[in-house]
Amino acid sequence: DAKTTQPTSMDCAEGRAANLPCNHSTISGNEYVYWYRQIHSQGPQYIIHGLKNNETNEMASLIITEDRKSSTLILPHATLRDTAVYYCIAWVVTQGGSEKLVFGKGTKLTVNP
Amino acid sequence: DGGITQSPKYLFRKEGQNVTLSCEQNLNHDAMYWYRQDPGQGLRLIYYSQIVNDFQKGDIAEGYSVSREKKESFPLTVTSAQKNPTAFYLCASSILRGGYTFGSGTRLTVV
Q: Which of chain B's residues have a Cβ under 8 Å away from the Cβ of A100?
């Protein structure tokens, strides 16, 4: 019941920008989109989140379309250490009314030398 | 420093034994979660708790049990009923509707 869809894998050259897309056409107007990444055998690491405005922090930028149906995570100058699985996720409200973040399989980003 | 701590990092279990994984947070987060991850797969939700003394089953709760007696602690017991327990287990916490903070994980192996 993931509310987001992402490509399975992407490649990027070291030093270039990595642009990771995510479709989330069914999220509601007050639901944030979160991005995490997971390097092999570690816990996922928070990157950034946003509602409708573009966001930037020291790690990445998040561009959200005006209709909020999709977003793009941008790593401006990818390094080899950015090789990881990147998850785009949103909150899901269960039938019982509780809430949880649902992780899909994410995008495996490989940064090549 | 605030954070979330999982222990142990590696755990070995004999078939038929129960084993408990520890998860402690000092972030004053209301909600806590347990996920299981198999090689090359995404995270699957086992159990979650949004308030002390209350918890809900996730997508793969069979063979697992939890308790939430304190806000800071959410231990996961892998019982003998879990037929394929070898996996990487991740604990997370959050404020309600906020981002997650994850622990560093426990790798459980059945020997």
A: 33, 45, 48, 58
